[in-house]
Amino acid sequence: MYIFSFKKLDVWKNPRELILTIYKMTVKFPSSEIYGITTQIKRSSASIAKNIAEGTSRNTNKDKAHFLTISYSSATETLNHLIISKDLNYIS
After folding, report:
1. What pTM does this model have?
2. What is the distance between the alpha carbons of residues 19 and 92, in angstroms, rounded to a whole number?
C-alpha cells in the first residue's frame, strides 16, 4: 500500500486526532444541535486535515501556502465552535 506524503506529517496527524475527538464529543450534544453546531464543528475540524492533505499535492509553494492558510482558518473556526460549545455547557 502506498503511503501518501501527508500521512507522514505531524501537522496532518494532530488534526486527524482532533477530528476523532470532536466526533466522539459531539455525540453527547443535544439532538436539537444536529444541524447546528454539531455539523459545523465536524466540518471545520475535518477541513483542517483535508486542506493540509490537499496542499501537499500542489506544485507551487504559493498554492501550497494557500491551502495551509485555509487549514489555519478552519482551525480558528473550530476553536470558535469549541468556545461556543463550552458557553452552552455542551463541553467542559
Report:
1. 0.89
2. 18
